[in-house]
Specification:
7 helices
Length: about 150
């Protein structure tokens, strides 16, 4: 009898559990980082580094205010979260939906495949630049994280 014939082949449940270990580790890391941001206020100086774009160029990037927005959102102040960065909630919802689709695909033994149209990267780049410019227009304080 060969050594492999005595070993039981993993069943479908074992394969499924093994498939979601990586998403589980990633989810634990994200939850841990979010718990830290919830507990340690980014508005207090000395806890987090400055945004490199703001530190080097003096302009607000699309991510500026995201830590403060996350802190406010996790602590239940949705209005303050939107004031710091209006993209926070749509970005988090999009990431959560994408993560859920990825976990579901892995659970079913498939890979998540996304084939966007050729115009989508250009549209996203244009939106990135437009939001950056809009955040830095003098007088448009409703888009700036300060």
């Amino acid at each position: 009898m060969s050594p492999t014939s005595t070993m039981a082949r993993p069943g479908p449940v074992t394969d499924r559990v093994r498939a979601v270990v990586l998403p589980g580790v990633i989810a634990a890391g994200v939850l841990g980082a979010t718990a830290y941001v919830a507990a340690v206020d980014p508005s207090q100086p000395g806890h987090y580094p400055l945004c490199p774009t703001y530190a080097l160029a003096g302009i607000y990037c699309p991510g500026c205010g995201m830590l403060r927005a996350t802190h406010q959102l996790v602590n239940g102040d949705v209005a303050a979260s939107i004031a710091y960065n209006p993209l926070t909630i749509p970005l988090f919802l999009g990431c959560a939906l994408l993560f859920a689709r990825w976990v579901y695909a892995r659970w079913q033994g498939r890979t998540l495949r996304w084939d966007p149209p050729t115009w989508m990267p250009w549209a996203m780049a244009l939106a990135f630049v437009a939001f950056t410019v809009a955040r830095n227009i003098p007088g448009w304080t409703w888009l700036s994280p300060a």
